[in-house]
Amino acid sequence: MATDLRTVAHLLDQLSVAGAVTARRMFGEYALYLDGRMVALVCDNRLFVKPTPAALRLLEHNALAPPYPGAKPHLLIDAALDDQDLMAEVLRAVAAEVPAPKPKAPRKASRG
User: Fold this and answer.
1) Cβ–Cβ contacts within 10 Å for residue 55, how many?
2) Angle of helix 84-97 relative to helix 5-15, nearest 10 degrees?
3) Residue 109: pLDDT above 80?
4) Where are the beta strands (DSSP E) in 35-80?
5) Among residues 26, 32, 38, which one has the least CA distance to residue 2?
6) Cα 94 → chain centroid
7) Are 30 and 42 in contact (CB under 8 A)?
8) Sheet of strand 21-26: strand arrangement
9) CA distance 103 to 112
10) Which of 28, 71, 77, 107 would bridge 66 by S-S if both were Cys, CB 3.0 to 4.6 A apart?
11) Of 58-62, 64-68, 94-98, 105-109, where does mean pLDDT reach its minimum?
């Protein structure tokens, strides 16, 4: 089941306290980015945060679950989403721990 765009808009609004959170559509679901770093996924209208050491410490009571079949487990966010300050801290911590995106290779000019 694909994620509803209204859910993504709501999550972006809730998480905006963390900074420049953006979403990118991927296979009917969405990846959430903070400062260009992927920090979470939205799958089946549920929020899954990357399980970095800081996120695991900050959200120690949250369950781990795969966001989609075959995926590595992520932190499934439930009531913690209502605590905007905690979620901002979590997303900033995750962004600090994940590697920066690799620069994209320049596109080759097409020959015609």
Assistant:
1) 23
2) 90
3) no
4) 37-43, 46-49, 64-65, 74-76
5) 26
6) 9
7) yes
8) 21-26, 29-34, 37-43, 46-49, 74-76, 64-65
9) 27
10) 71
11) 105-109
Count the Cβ atoms, other than its own, within 10 Å of residue 13: 11
How does 77-86 read in b/e, with b if 16+ C-beta sit within 10 Å? beebeeeeee
Token output for 81 = 């989403």
pLDDT, tens digit, 9 for 90 and up, residues 18-55: 999 999 998 879 999 999 999 999 999 999 999 999 99
List of residues 6+ apart from 58 with CB closer than 8 A:
86, 89, 90, 93
List helix spans (H) across the chain: 5-15, 53-58, 84-97
Q: Is the dihedral of CA 13, 14, 17, 21 positive or negative?
A: negative
Instruction: Answer yes or no: is pLDDT of 110 > 80.
Output: no
The DSSP H or E segment spanning 31 is strand 29-34
Closest Cα to residue 75, out of 60, 96, 85? 60
